[in-house]
Amino acid sequence: MTFPVTMIDRLAADSVLADSVQLALQNNLFDHLQNPLSARQLAEKLQWHADPTAHLLELLWSFQLLDRQQQQGEALLYRTASAVIPYLCQQGERYMGDAWRYRLQALRGFGQQLTEMLKQPLPEYSEQLPHDAAWAAAAGGQIAQEQRALTADTACAIAATVTRFNHPARMLDMGGGPGLVSAALAQRYPQLTGVVQDLPLTARVAQGNLVAAGVSDRFSAVSELADGDRFDIIWCSSFLHFVADPAQTLADLYRRLNPGGVLISAHARLGDDPQQVSRVLPFFLPLLMRGKHVFHHQQLTQMLTEAGFRVEDRGEQPFPMAPLYIHCAWRGERS
């Protein structure tokens, strides 16, 4: 095998692109370029110099974040690519610029700690919950942006393949954060009712989003579930990474399902294909290094089966940061 010099070089170059996108977001560059501007015109708006600005714009254009055009005898004009506007312009309906910047800083912070982490044993699992106020702030910020940008659409696409959504059903959104997945599913399926469960202040954020979505007559957000609460559908995305005992949690979720109900699990999975692992592990290595759970191979399938579920592997689906592996796990006969 030839040593992958190109790949190694690319890793170094990607840091330049990441810094350039971060700089663009910090200065609302994509917003300014919703109308075509030359490098000189943009530089005047941002109080930059025209020549280095032109080089930055060429880099962003080369990664298809910008379009460019030139009329004969005139300067190149740059414009934010139409596919980019919803995601990186602040008024875009799927804006996720703040979430992307947060993830970039978090991953860089982790990288700076990696040397010290390698000198210590992995920490034992901590049952301490995230600080409610910090988690609520994330739910109102970067997690909401990510759910709005991609997660809700992916959830609706998965739901379209699960027949249980075509009948009246009660759904639990376990650890649902800002509740935008539930809001999107409730808007898509008017016969669907349910609850979003999360920490108290986070549940308050979710309740506000359910009200704003016009579905609070059918969905509510809670911090605790009653012992007798039962559901026809449970949506469980990235929740098992953080619990003390995933097998016990799955057993508890099985008991909360009505016969014929389905648990939809969306979690990171590390397989045998290096390309697949490379898409997932850089984002989930921080969890592993902090003693959290990331599932290997058929590990989660086995846990689901041992909990009593009949499991359907649905493969990977797109989610923020990295693709997640989907299991549809049924209790009893499918309805």
Automatic annotation (TrEMBL):
Q: Where is the O-methyltransferase dimerisation domain?
A: 20-80
A GO term (biological process) for this protein?
A: methylation
Under CDD domains, the record lists: AdoMet_MTases (cd02440)
Instruction: Supply one GO molecular-function term.
Output: methyltransferase activity
Q: Does the keyword Transferase apply?
A: yes
This protein's source sits in the domain of life called Bacteria
Arranged from A to Z, the UniProt key words for this protein are: Methyltransferase, Transferase
- The residues that cross the membrane are none
UniProt name for this protein: Methyltransferase type 12
